[in-house]
Amino acid sequence: MASLGTVLVGFNSTATNIALDSIRQSFVGATAADVGWGIAGYMIGTAAFLPLAGRLADRIGRKLIFQSGLLLFAVSAVLSAVAPTVWTLNLARVLQAIGGAAILPASLSLVLPLFPESRRTSAVGMWSAAGPLAAGIAPGLSALLLGTVGWRFLYFVSAPLAVLMFVVAWRLLTELPPPEVKHRLDVTGATAGTIGLAALVTAIMQGGRVWGWTSPVTLVVVAVGAGAFAWFVANSLRHPEPLLNLHLLRGRGVWVTQLANFLVGISSQSIWLIWPLFMFNFWGYSEFQVGFGVTVGPIVAGASTVFFSRLGERWNAIALCRTGAAIQVIAIGWQVVRLGTEADYFREMAPTIALFGLGWGMCVPLLNSVALAWVDDSYFGEISGLFNTLRYAASAIGIAGLFALLKEEAGSITYYQRGLAFFLVSAIVAFVSLWIPIGRPDRSRR
């Protein structure tokens, strides 16, 4: 049931990638970047609310937060399906992101304490595999729905599924007793973090496309974002129970994995936008061809996640993470060299997509397992929330960077070359960050 919640959230985070052009055409005057705000807003909303949701799950009940997230997800799915304008759709997507943010950390923290410590790497791997599974289902299913009933049903289909999961969770899942609460919830930190991330993404997307990087408006928005992040950090340092527990970052295994997770996350979600756009606009592929063309990557990612998560229990998990990050660098580099003007899916697109999925499955889920090994069971919800917060925040930044390049013609090879170069740089930096030594967890501080 916990993994099904991840499937639901993962499906809705990638299904729009195939529907981007159909959504744009259904709203008069809407641009691809306008629709892109819905994708970025989904990532921002998820990233902003994840740590608060993880904290709430640990404080007032993981099952309660999980079920509340499912209900909100269902309502927002209906609102997305009936949205009369592109901006009401984008707002509904932000609401859906908040519901998804409640589902993610609560789902893992509900079941992880039920596993012995020796099996938790596999448990995290199975839970993490649900995301690529959903991403693998989304393109093909999106293509079929778009060709038959349209993009609105693509959103609506999540509503009955969320309601069904709510009923099953109510009957099957068991609530664990929350720890004793002594301090107020850090609402200030949640507010500051949300403002900071939203301002940063706005500055990247609008600064690159509309305002100009050095315009007064862009500089003001950047200043607001920087001030909000400074406020967030200062508040976290003085709050008795902050949204971001800086004490957890004392463990080198925690902060190194979180850094690598953020850097990998810049390309992990947003690169799935550039591939459909390229096949649509440059190779002239149909929605059906694009949908099934990108499916190979998530399928490989899901399979490799399950396999390498089990292998990580016996082998050096951080070495596997490094290998996975290296494979992602090779995958993107291959496409930078090979991408051409004539359609050649099996030599130019399929190897990149498959290798990228393989690298993701070797790296990202194991990073979460390494981070969890450095903390006590009582912090599982908080660590999982932090891990996914950084992943979605990085995704929002990656998507903003990609759409900032949309001032170029989508039919120009330069647009895709710049996007791929951006992702290649972030992948290389992520690989380098994983070579920071972490040692072994200090059990005396747990």
Task: Give keywords.
446 residues; single chain; mainly alpha; Growth Hormone, Chain: A
Characterization of the model:
The protein has helices spanning 2-26, 32-60, 62-81, 86-111, 120-148, 151-156, 158-172, 187-211, 216-238, 252-268, 271-281, 287-293, 296-311, 317-338, 345-372, 380-404, 413-433. The protein is mainly alpha-helical and 446 residues long.
Q: Could you name the CATH topology of the largest domain?
A: Growth Hormone, Chain: A
Query: Compute the gyration radius: what is it?
Result: 21 Å
Percent of residues in helices = over 70%
Give the termini separation: 29 Å
The tally of structural domains comes to 2
CATH homologous superfamily title of the largest domain: MFS general substrate transporter like domains
Overall spatial form: globular
Largest sheet composition: none
CATH architecture of the largest domain: Up-down Bundle
Share of residues in strands: under 5%
Instruction: Quickly name the level 1 CATH class of the largest domain.
Output: Mainly Alpha
| H and E string | HHHHHHHHHHHHHHHHH
Number of helices: 17
